[in-house]
Write a structure and sequence with these properties.
single chain; alpha+beta; Jelly Rolls; 6-stranded antiparallel beta sheet; 5-stranded antiparallel beta sheet; 1 helix; 15% helix
């Protein structure tokens, strides 16, 4: 019994090492903001945003990093995500607030270098007053659940 337990433990540890090694065996990524290859953001975001995927695949259950560019006066209505979302402002100003509906008076302005952690399953919203670029990273898959289903651009 003790030998069988030791073998099971050893097999488990070996599996963890293999998984860790395969997870870290990624391609090296070194890029500048000028190198970004922009395209339309996924339809879960309102039209007008652009995305540049830097690493990973946001649609997969794995780490990802993307840049998002929002035009002036862009609004992302109240929504939540199934996983934590990390936001860093690269340029411009992004206004973020917590709650079930967009409330510009309660939002916090994040300028260049500003950071926000949007916890999984917590409703929040965002908007811009001028063009803004953010770095967004976390663990996928990325999805949006809009508080008001009528705000979901995939249903329009």
């Amino acid at each position: 019994m003790k030998t069988r337990l030791m073998l099971s433990f050893a097999a488990g540890v070996a599996t963890l090492f293999v998984l860790a090694a395969s997870a870290s065996a990624q391609t090296h990524v070194i890029t500048t903001l000028a190198d970004a290859r922009w395209g339309p953001a996924p339809p879960m975001l309102p039209p007008g945003a652009q995305i540049a995927v830097l690493a990973g695949d946001p649609s997969k259950p794995a780490p990802y990093t993307v840049r998002l560019k929002f035009p002036a006066n862009y609004v992302v209505p109240a929504h939540s995500h199934p996983n934590d979302e990390n936001v860093i402002v690269v340029s411009g100003d992004l206004f973020i607030g917590m709650g079930n509906k967009l409330d510009k008076t309660s939002a916090t302005a994040l300028g260049k270098g500003g950071y926000a952690l949007m916890p999984a399953s917590h409703n929040h919203f965002a908007f811009t007053t001028s063009e803004a670029t953010i770095l967004l990273y976390g663990i996928g898959p990325v999805d949006f659940t809009y508080v008001n289903p009528a705000d979901d651009p995939r249903k329009k």
